[in-house]
Every structure is written in C-alpha cells, then in structure tokens.
Specification:
The complex is a heterodimer. By secondary structure, chain A is mostly beta strands. Chain A has strands spanning about 10-15, 20-25, 30-40, 45-50, 55-60, 60-65, 70-75, 85-95, 100, 105-110.
Chain lengths: ~110, ~120
C-alpha cells in the first residue's frame, strides 16, 4: 500500500519571539552534530554545527546546545522572523565518514 | 560557486516502471551521496561514493536500486522496477572529502521529487 509520512512536530511562534527546537539523537558515540533548515522544494541548508567536546555554540541569531548526558540537542533562534519558517532537522555523525543520520524534524511557523 | 545540480525536479511514473535521476556535484568534490527523504521524515543515506568507488551502500535496496559514478564526477541513481513506497524526494549531496563536516563543504541539492502511482 501507499506509504504515509510521519506527522512532523510543529512549533508556532510570533514574529520577534525566540524559538527553541529540540532534538534527541540516537548514538552516544556520535561526535558531530548539525542543524539544517529545509524550505519547501529545497534541500537541507546548513545552519550551525557543534562538536561533542562542546556544549554550546553561537552563530548569528542561532545558538545550539548539546547535552550528551541525555543525548539532546536544541536550536535557539533569536528574534524569529517570517523567513525562518521551515522544517528544521538535527543530524548526527558517529565518526562513520560522511554519513549523516537525521532526526524527525520540526516544522516552524512564524506568525507576522 | 555553483551548487549541487539535480534533474529532473519532478517525476511521476507508474509502479513497475523504471526511473533515473542525475546529479552533478560541486566542482572538486570527491565525495557524493544519495539520500532518500520520504514525506514527513528526515533524509536517509542510500549510497556514498568516493570518486568513482562505493564507500557505503548498506542502506541501498539493491534488488531495485542502482547507482553509478563512472568518471568520478556526475552520478545517476536508478530504480527498476519502482514501487509505491519509493515515492520520495531523492537528494544528492557532495563534499570535498568523506567527512560530515561543514568545513568540507557538505552541500545538498534541491532534490528530485518522485511520485509512483
């Protein structure tokens, strides 16, 4: 029969508010993590990355937090804008070359 | 810098037909990846090439999927025969080296959306 996609978690925020998107990763051996933004009809676009020897990294309007104890990543977007509306994925690399393992994704909607 | 080019953008076929997708990576990128992204899910790696050799095809359904990168540049991914559950976006990515690191230029194309009816 026809396959059905999973229902993505959603987050709706008001323009100008801060957004926090969470992700649980699977492999305690993973040593590198990336957050991607994916807009409709486009491929994943790099936002920010973090290595496992760090617990926080900041970029322009974005911050990634890593909690290795509970295998949890979060992406914080400051002053969220309508252009931030997209699906956000975390991805992990467990030192197996170029293979990225993606999480389920969160759909962010920004209300003007 | 030109990005990863993929064609076609969309394809609709009937089940049991065959289909092929094409990818042209960023110039100079030795490593090329094909990912499958089913609606509502994250991308899943199908196959990874280093130049014209296969590094990882453990997730490729080899009874129906095949891929090649004969000259170490462009790549094609083929499905024969297609099933309904193959409906997905097929993403190509490339990087300078076989490392999932942003500083190796790991970049995705816009994908080919396949619908099998």
């Amino acid at each position: 029969g026809e396959s059905v996609g999973l229902h993505l978690p959603t987050l709706s925020v008001q323009e100008g508010d801060n957004s926090i998107i969470n992700c649980a990763y699977s492999n305690s051996a993973s040593d590198y993590f990336i957050w991607y933004k994916q807009e409709s009809g486009k491929g994943p676009q790099f936002i920010i990355d973090i290595r496992s020897n760090m617990d926080k990294r900041q970029g322009q309007r974005v911050t990634v937090l890593l909690n290795k104890t509970v295998k949890h990543l979060s992406l914080q977007i400051a002053a969220t804008q309508p252009g931030d509306s997209a699906v956000y994925f975390c991805a992990e690399n467990n030192n197996q070359g170029g293979k990225l393992i993606f999480g389920q994704g969160t759909e962010l909607s920004v209300k003007p | 810098e030109a990005g990863v080019a993929q064609s076609p953008r969309y394809k609709i076929i009937e089940k049991r037909q065959s289909v092929a997708f094409w990818c042209n990576p960023i110039s100079g990128h030795a490593t090329l990846y094909w990912y499958q992204q089913i609606l509502g899910q994250g991308p899943k790696l199908l196959i990874q090439f280093q130049n014209n050799g296969v590094v990882d095809d453990s997730q490729l359904p080899k009874d129906r999927f095949s891929a090649e990168r004969l000259k170490g540049v462009d790549s094609t991914l083929k499905i024969q025969p297609a099933k309904l559950e193959d409906s997905a976006v097929y993403l190509c990515a490339s990087s300078l080296a076989p490392m999932a690191r942003a500083n190796y230029g790991y970049t995705f194309g816009s994908g080919t959306r396949l619908t099998v009816v």
